[in-house]
Structure formats: C-alpha cells, structure tokens
Amino acid sequence: MAVSEMAILGLLFAGIGGTAGAFIRFITVEVFKKQTTFPAGVLISNAVGTFVLALVTFYISKEAGSLEGEIFRHMELFVFFFNTGVLGSLTTFSALSYDNLIYLEQKKFLAAAANIFLNITAGTVAVFAGFLAAFYIL
C-alpha cells in the first residue's frame, strides 16, 4: 500500500508541531511547579490549549467551505501542524492521569478529585469560550 504525499507531509508537520507543543507544556509545567504543589501547569496547558483548539477549529471549519485546491491543502497541513501537533502535545490526558496517580498513592483523595474536576470543568468552559470567541470575532 502506497503512502500518499499528503500523509507523509501530515506526519512531518504533526511531528514538528508536537515538538513545539511539548516544549511549551514543559515550560508551563516547570514554571508553575515552583509556585505550587498543585499541578497548575497541566491545568493551564489543558485549558488554554482547549480554548485555542476550539477557536482555531471553528475558524478553519468556517473558512473551509470557501477554500479550494492548493489553499485548502495548506490549511490541512496547518491543521496537522497546529491542532494535531502543537495543541495535541500541549494538552495531555496522560499528565493529568499521572498527577492523579501520585495524589492517590499519597492518599490525597480530595486533591485528586479537585484536579479531575478542575481539568474537566476548565476544558469544557475553555472549548465553549473558544467557540464563542471565534463566533463573535469572526
């Protein structure tokens, strides 16, 4: 089975974007790790990344109907780079789960519950806010 040029480019763009997103998340987590024992860096990464994902995705979906040919191809590559790569790497369920495992091992059940609640709530609010921001800005 031959792999298409678009699939290869998509993989390359997602990988480059993923590197950037991991770098941003690492810095965010490290900055907040020094200020609090709560994993605020993961919470902020997830909330901001989710907001931006909703904003960008809504914009792209709105514009996609008017894009054709080569311009649409470039938009697809942008989605691979930014949505799949940068934002997929920035927002991470695995870090949230790992932080909760540590809390549970330390018998900090309230902290684990708060972490789950805050991340899910922040993510839901962020995706809604991103959608509204894109809707009213665009």
Mean pLDDT over the residues: 89
| Tally of DSSP β-strands | 0
**N-to-C SSE series?**
HHHHH
* Gross geometry: globular
What Rg do the Cα atoms give?
Answer: 17 Å
**Helical proportion, percent range:** over 70%
Structural class, judged by helices and strands?
mainly alpha
Distance between the termini: 41 Å
Note the main sheet.
none
Taking pLDDT < 50 over at least 5 consecutive residues as the criterion, the unreliable ranges are: none
How many separate helices? 5
Quaternary state of the chains: single chain
The total domain count is 1
Strand content: under 5%
Brief characterization of the structure:
The chain has helices at residues 5-33, 40-64, 69-90, 93-105, 109-137. The longest helix is centred in the N-terminal third of the chain and has 29 residues, at 5-33. It starts with a helix and ends with a helix.
